[in-house]
Model the fold of this input.
Amino acid sequence: MGIKNITIVTLGSHSALQILKGAKDEGFKTAVVCTPDRKTLYSSYDNFIDDILLIDKWSDFPNLEKGLIKRNSIIIPHGSFVAYLGMDENKKMQVAYFGNKAVLDWEENRKMQREWMEKSGIKVPHKFRKGDKIDRSVIVKSYGAAGGKGYFTARNQKELDEKLKTFSEERFMVQEYVIGVPVYFHFFYSPLSKKVELMSVDKRYETNVDSLGRIPAKNQRGISIEPTFEVVANIPMAVRESMLAEAVAMADRVIDVSKRLIPPKGLFGPFCLETIITSSEEIYVIEISARIVAGTNFFINGSPYTYLLYKEPMSTGRRIAREIKNAIKQDQLKEVLD
Ligand code: AMP
Ligand code: AMP
Done:
């Protein structure tokens, strides 16, 4: 099938603009699925979005599936898929889907994800089990991709017990709070070339934790400010080259191990290692995101790292479309779809 007959489709949110711009640059037809409140935004990009498929609410998405299959669509998942459609809907989807759905469980379930990270030989913050004595500062995280929403910190057992009394989430994890700077490394693994590519790096701008240093501690005393981690934006980074070496080696191991844990394909396509780097230059991985992350949105026109590999601007969204195109050329499309 020629690429001109294939439509690249995604949900209108998160990194849709990047994904569809990249698909158009690679020669595909494009469509966005969105709710009416977003029509104005997406129709203003009719230079690369061919069709807008409106649904009243996100849960209506399955009604579109037949039509999408008819027009040879390939869905590109991003952070909003599980958040808006739910895990089951996401897995049940009949339309061709870029990526390996079996990875979703390993991403969502924090226990499984931890096993994956430990087997990959990467440092992870200490995790406290139920009943363990809390002997350091901790961060409490709910399950699922939520962009840091609803996380909280506690300095000791007493504070943790106190705060858990009013915490409504049923499933959460209590993790050592690592003092250091957050650095998010974005990668792409090609099952065709069998290579991991470093795409870009960002840090998040999180409210209110990133603003606390603006007020001296003496002025904060007496007002009850709790650090929260809700992401608002992403800031690009160029990382010390000596640290890149380790990050790239970690990404390689994460891919290798994924092939054993989630056989036969393992993780492929875009992914992100979310790290905290300490003052002794230790890189702790707090999460593996097994899909395109919104931190790549800054790099629609490419990053310093993609410039090293490509002659043209290469966003992560465009890299996905390029992989699909290469797969078609090599008659390997099945390799990249689920
Ligand atoms: P949205 O469709 O923008 O609401 O995003 C879907 C999911 O991805 C939500 O759970 C968000 O918290 C998360 N998300 C959105 N934007 C970002 C971002 N810039 N960085 C990290 N996570 C994000
Ligand atoms: P996550 O949802 O795991 O990407 O975490 C969201 C944000 O919470 C990160 O960007 C960090 O600012 C913070 N965070 C998460 N885990 C830790 C940790 N173990 N130590 C320190 N900060 C953390």
Notes: Residues 13-14, 79-80, 83, 145-147, 149, 204, 231, 234, 294-295 surround adenosine monophosphate (ligand 1) (CB under 6 Å). The mean pLDDT is 94. DSSP finds 13 helices and 14 strands in the chain. Residues 106-123+179-219+231-327 form a domain with the D-amino Acid Aminotransferase; Chain A, domain 1 fold (CATH 3.30.470.20).
